Amino acid sequence: MSDKYFTVNIRAYLDKDEPTYIGEESLYDLLSDFSCPKNPDVEYFLLHNAIEFTKKDQSITYLVFDAEDASLVGYFSLTVKPITVRASNISKTMAKKLSRVSILDEETQSYTTAAYLIAQLGKNYSLPKNKRIPGNILLGFALETISSLKYSVGGVMEFLECEDNEFLLSFYTQNHFKPFDTRITASQNNESHTLHQLLKFI
């Protein structure tokens, strides 16, 4: 990946045995400059949930910094979750790959398996435009981290969810993710909206 940036697992700031330990209060201060008005849920997660979710092993958040001035340019959060994919929504080639690592429900013709989830991905819009990290590089760091996990523990699939937004859908499909389903969810203000689910074999 680009040597203009580096990533830090926030455990490094929370573990007293690590030389990088700064504690929760200082970590919250570090995160407080992050802003993502294009997706308030992404901003809310980092500022209110990322630390607790990491402490509870629900997901792990990685911060991405500018190597030149150590400014926080973005973040991503990863976890492992079960995923269910209807055979009718994917190609025969994908179904064949999926069948090797999943359970097929004959009645619903759906495959269920564990997969790496890119639970959150967001760039810091409080920075000047010329300092913001390109989306493909930010996503690349998340994919690179998953690849290293695959090397250590296995796994064949990664997936993510995105808003019903033509730009985002185009961005992820250009990065080789394939749409396979949608679901309805509620945002922080309890308004329901559609999320598109996309998958990719590692």
Question: Would you mind describing this structure in some detail?
Answer:
This is GNAT family acetyltransferase. The chain has 202 residues and is an alpha+beta fold. The chain has one domain: 3-Layer(aba) Sandwich (Aminopeptidase). 32% of the residues lie in helices and 35% in strands. It contains six helices and eight strands, in the order βαααββαββαβαββ. It has helices at residues 11-14, 24-31, 40-55, 92-99, 135-153, 166-174, and strands at 5-9, 60-66, 72-86, 103-105, 110-123, 157-163, 178-186, 192-201. Strands 1, 2, 3, 4, 5, 6, 7 and 8 form an eight-stranded mixed β-sheet that branches. A hairpin with a 5-residue loop joins strand 7 and strand 8 (192-201). The two termini are 17 Å apart.
Strand-helix topology:
Layout: E1 5-9, H1 11-14, H2 24-31, H3 40-55, E2 60-66, E3 72-86, H4 92-99, E4 103-105, E5 110-123, H5 135-153, E6 157-163, H6 166-174, E7 178-186, E8 192-201
Parallel strand pairs: 5-6
Antiparallel strand pairs: 1-2, 2-3, 3-5, 4-5, 6-8, 7-8
Number of domains: 1
Helix-strand string: EHHHEEHEEHEHEE
What is the CATH topology classification name?
Aminopeptidase
The name of the CATH superfamily reads: Gcn5-related N-acetyltransferase (GNAT)
Q: Which terms would index this structure?
A:
32% helix; eight-stranded mixed β-sheet; 202 residues; alpha+beta; 6 helices; globular; 8 strands; single chain; Aminopeptidase
In short:
It comes from Blautia obeum. By secondary structure, the protein is α+β, with helices and mostly antiparallel strands.
